[in-house]
Structure formats: structure tokens, C-alpha cells
Model the fold of this input.
Amino acid sequence: MKISAPLSKSPRHKKIRKAIVILLVLFLFSISTFCIDKSLLEHDKTPFFSIRYTVMNDGGSAAYFGLGYQLIKWKQLESNEIGGYQFGVEAHYLIGINPFPLEPSVSLRHVHS
Done:
């Protein structure tokens, strides 16, 4: 009985496997940075892994782009109450990214300052 050596993988299979591993690592990194940045924004802090690309003139709202995601921090001053504002975080991952946000698509909560 003759035992044969395992078949060596072709260079094409090695390249495909390497590409899949790289894409998987990028995807996991993207998900991790999305979760971290969203958590920071929910605590009214500046996100670490994304870039601010626009600021709205409504009391402090800003939109951020990250690796495959968009975060919008809505912070709108209330005209009927002194020292209060409406706050909320809108998050989009790969789908539903809005480069020019005008109105929040999430409900905002009232915050006393």
C-alpha cells in the first residue's frame, strides 16, 4: 500500500484564500470601529475612527463617515426651552447612507443642560 503526499495547493487557490482572509479582517475591523464610534456618539463624545464631513447649523449636529458606515449625531437646540436640546444618534452600515442629512430619521430625546 502506497501513501501519497497531500496535494499541494495551486497558487490560484492560495491567492483566493488570502483575499478572503483580508476581506474578512477588513469586515471585522469595520464592524468593530462602527460599534465603538456609535457608542462614543451615544455618550456625546467625538468618534475616534470616523471623519466628520459636515456640521449642521442647528445647535451641534454633525455627520461622520467611517469604513463602510455613516453616523449622524443630532443635537438640535429647542427654541421653547432655555438650556435644553434634542439629542439622538442615527447609524447606517453599508445601506441607507445619506450624504446630505436634513432631518433625523430617528426619534430624539430631550436633554436638560
